[in-house]
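Researcher: Here's a chain I'd like modeled. Treat it as a single chain, no partners, no ligands.
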Amino acid sequence: MGLLAALALVGSRLARSGSALRQPPAASLQPLKSVPAAASQLLLVDVAGAVRRPGLYRLASGTRIADAVRRAGGATARADTAAINLAAPLVDGMQVVVPRTGGATAGSAAAPGAAGSTSGMRISLSSATVEQLDSLPGIGPVTAQKIVDWRTAHGAFRSVDALDEVPGIGPTRIEQLRDLVTP
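Model: Modeled as a single isolated chain. Structure tokens:
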């Protein structure tokens, strides 16, 4: 009995002081909110072409091509920004190429918008328009639209090999396009 009385006495003193039995504030009971892994991730992006400071840039996940161009000092006066999709999301390892107006190099007979007309620059699968994709060999307007539809449903291309998931494009076509496109 003496032990029980002693415990009761200690318990009542602790209850009065509030130090041992006090509940932590409600805010500390909430789970810690962590920054989502995707939001805290940095992407490494190569910005080239008609920008003031071409080079490699680290940008936050979820940023757009417009952010990359801005980070590279913005487009030059000779840039053809209408030829790229500035709203397309960036992907780690992506190359953003801002073409120059006219696009064709001196002595080149390539029509504007044709593959190879951007001075050896590749077409980005993650930002190209239907018209740009249609200019690729073996890609017509229907397949170009399927590429854009796939990109809309699944996000930016992470590799050229992801074209295999687009209906109507097989391994042979991918090999034909490999040197003409970037993810």
